[in-house]
């Protein structure tokens, strides 16, 4: 009963050996082998571009005595880079069933199977003289990233207290940005970005995975998963005690109990069932639009094809590898700032402001490219790229991953993350495939399509996305209920008043 739960919930201070640092350490452990891998594996593919392309050409010559043309080598390289996105799409699709069956923490641990297998394929590809092994490796690493990008924000959002839910969930974006910087640094020619070490660079992602395997088992599972999905109240309370350092408010447990009552008897939703469920219609539309916009804004393509963009800005080849590190550092700094501001400013403002600023800087960048003949314009172009990434880190980079946790209940959340992840990875693949051709085809106007996407996204957020800052999950659900059933509630209320009036008349007569 609720009374028994409250009695059991009373903190036992002598046993509360761990303070709130447990939550911080849990976040670090999960993210090092989680979303950090996404940013890291995007960044490390920029440094060995020339070396792997030469390896592909040499392999064809040795096997079939064929000299590939430049466009053929570029096509194979584009497949190697973009296949990562298709692996991520597969990972996003299996993440939901895995979290339901194994839980959030165990799912992250099992996810390292894909990571270690991919690292092994990458490490041995050069000795085996097989570029196909690199493709297989990128698929497996993509699956790993797809699962972690869905499961980790869910794990954080369900484990954090309400007043820190946004900041803790946003730490996924901070570690993604840190992964980008780390990948750019490790990819320097002085470290692992040289011709003799590129296979070690591609396999270096195994190190964060080992750290997670050694540390994450010591931390608790998501309290909401333990109580709502597994019905294990003692495990839930023990997890809350550890994550809160023994000082847990009873109101937090009451909120989880309320969500358990609301979802009692309901099985986890499947992605296609969300399409026909009117109660989550606008939540689903919001997640699809914002998750798609996160990739269609073109920010991640800057990292994959950084050299293309900086060459358009007029930088020399020697400068590019060092300037690229600055882009990752810029997003990392912005994500930290967003983490500090999100609980004060709110999700809606951060998202809308980020997309608006990105649209403005994309327009300025286009103007700078058109006037590139002016001596100082290349520097303005470079500044626009940095401010573009800064604006992305301040809003869409982190807030997008928080939304499914806050606007869907426990039964619909895994399916919602599957939809969000699928849209994100599918659009990343599309942009990754077309971006080099977009640059060569549109040239100075290559950022105009991204400006349109950012402006449209900001407009949608301003019109249809309510603020979720500081609200309980039940309160957010009720707010979306009013949007999803707008008009129907008025009809229902008028019918109720009419029926009450009829009943009064009948009594009078």
Description:
- The protein is mainly α and 509 residues long.
- It has 26 helices and no strands.
- The chain has helices at 2-9, 21-32, 35-43, 49-64, 70-102, 104-110, 112-128, 131-159, 165-186, 198-203, 206-215, 223-229, 233-244, 250-262, 271-276, 281-296, 299-304, 306-312, 317-345, 347-370, 377-394, 396-407, 413-442, 448-464, 473-484, 488-508.
- Helix 5 runs parallel beside helix 8 (131-159).
- The chain starts with a helix and ends with a helix.
- Residues 1-18 and 491-509 have low confidence and may be disordered.
Query: Helical region count?
Result: 26
In sequence order, what are the helices and strands, one letter per element? HHHHHHHHHHHHHHHHHHHHHHHHHH
What oligomeric state do these chains adopt?
A: single chain
Classify the helix fraction into a percent range: over 70%
Say how many strands there are.
Answer: 0
Q: Over all CA atoms, what is the radius of gyration?
A: 25 Å
Strand-pairing-aware structural class: mainly alpha
User: Largest sheet, described in full?
Assistant: none
Shape: globular
Overall pLDDT, averaged?
83
The rounded distance between the terminal residues' Cα atoms is 47 Å
* Poorly predicted sequence stretches spanning 5 or more consecutive residues: 1-18, 491-509
Strand content: under 5%
